[in-house]
Specification:
This protein has five helices and 49 strands. The chain is mainly beta. The chain has a domain of 90 residues: Immunoglobulins (Immunoglobulin-like, Sandwich). It is globular.
Length: 719
Amino acid sequence: MARILLACVLILACGPLCAQQSTYVWQKFADRIKASEAISPLGNDLFGDRVGLSKGELSFAATDLALPGNDSLRVALERQYSVFDRRWRTSSPGMMADWDLSLPSIGAVFASDWVVQPNVSHPVSTARCSVVGRAPVAYPFDLSDFWRGVTLNLPGEEAGEILVANSPVTLADGRTYTWVTGNGMTRLACLPTVKNGAGEGFLAVTPDGTRYWFDWMGQTDEGGLSESIYIPGQPTLYGVALKKTMLYATRVEDRFGNRVDYTYDNAWNARPRLTRIQATDGRTITLTYSGANISSATDGTRTWTYTYASTASGRTTLTQVGLPDGSRWSIQFQGFTQDGEIRYRDYTPGGEIVRTCTHNDVPLNIGNTFVGTLTHPSGAMGTFTMDIREHGRSNVPVSCRNVTTLVGQPNGSGNNQNDDVNLWAIKGYSFTLKQKRISGPGLATSEWNYSYVPGTSFYRYPGTTVQYPVCDWQNHNCSLPPCTSDSCAGASTTTVAGPGGEWVRYTHGNSYRYNEGKLLRVERGTSASNILQTTVNAYDLSLQNQVYPASFGESLSVNSDGFEAMFHRPAVSRTVYQDGTSFTSVTTAFDAFARPITVTRASAVVPAAPPPGTPAPTPQPLLATSALTVPGSAYTHQTFAVSWEAVADATYYVLESRTSTGSFSVRYSGAALTTSVSFAVVTSAVFQVKACNTNGCGEYSPQRVTVIRSSGGGGGIEP
């Protein structure tokens, strides 16, 4: 009865209001597609910027104060900021508004409080550690719409999902550790209670013997989630409120008994509120608040201050960090915090197909740029420009949910494709770093410009058709990867052009359940036609047990979203090609944790280019990107102009277009800077153009959209 009541409270059918307050499930696809493992600063990291190179994800990390002590336990105040879609965030839930503190924690996003279910036939439980279960979910939502498993955050390490250990271990403290991190190195056991709420907590122990007591709960709003179900004659919109619920460490202790305590004073279902960090050797950081945000921090002799501003969106933003010596950091992230929204239609115009299971609706603000700046106390300024781009995976199987069929008709007849959602995320739109610039008094301006080729694709198993995009499960296991070799595997590329003529191209694997997330190749030189050094990495992608297990545990994510967390796939070789010589490093023996114990290094004279069989680089642009102009809307059968700007050294241009459900095709190729087009059906026409010459073509322009509306003269609905 408790489970049924929970579903009734949280999942409701509702009217247009839901669409105005929450995100459609397919708009979360970008969250399901993990960034590559290559996350690093590029160029001068004076501003603490970190870039997820495969998708251009941008974040910042800053340490305002760190107190050295008599042991290795860290006592520091560290803050972090991430650029992401804030469309349905009406507030800034961090302890520093749109910035948050980097603290040891564990948690997840739920469509309820932190309760778990082993399966739908069991009641929900707050025994969130000893009961192996997932978040509860109710129709029409799927767990993959919001659930990414339980994530562990530890200082100095990348956050990652915890796994149900293949082999639980009992340590000297008598506890059984049933959870493990993806690298097999950190183990977690259960605490019987938490300090400010109901249910269990977690105890983590790292390889060096440091223990973390996760037993203080905090909760923040994650916005809402919507799904439209189109049943003929009965379209219904469902909504659910999401909560991010975390357990924070109140105690960290090393194997010698040295200890750091974290003190909080929030209720279990309120945003976290840290008030003190104190070590047994006397190091102390005390925090004071103004409203919900930290206003100052002190170590007893020095004080740091924090200033905030409101934005028109209602979200608060950190604008200044005052240092004890009177200098300050200035932060202007309104372009990210206030304007940082990826905007889609709030409703689907009657009868219009704007998206399908395999093609996303194009954001209404696809051509916008978003700018944030940081000013260092020295006066140096970092300017970061982002735009909206689509990133994803390749070789993703197609099998869609919500596909309907009219009674007595062939499969898929009468299906409204707007609500179709693929079981496995193919691609999604996200904020993407376009440019980083450093300038200031006495500094020569330096720029890093980023370009991307996402390399996305999907695969239909036999029996899965365009009209009926549902797996024939009786004859095929469509969850299996259709490609498990380098000969068919896909990849994405990111090219960075920096100051002084530096040029670097990164190739990341993105093939579904094969090489996704792995950095395959790095090429350095002055341009795509003058590559001076190439590094090729190879990995154990067999997913088979070796001396080490293929996986140290089982992911609780669903629909293969936990693949990268579950299968560590260690590097086995690295080869650098430079000046006609190859320099190779091969791991010939591993330990049980997939750490190298024997490495062989060798060099040889070879052709400057990598030998056959190594992944081929994706052709890259030789020219600048042209700016494209289209009208916002037009009518069926109406002729309208599409134009673009001239690009130096270009001799011709290629304009491509697609409808909201189709693939790109060439509309025009020639030397002109404009052409006329028309459409016979109601759709969203998407355009892109590239500049070309005899050496090749440049990057496609950012996509532009023209909404084609019915003129009443017989324009049909796009099939």
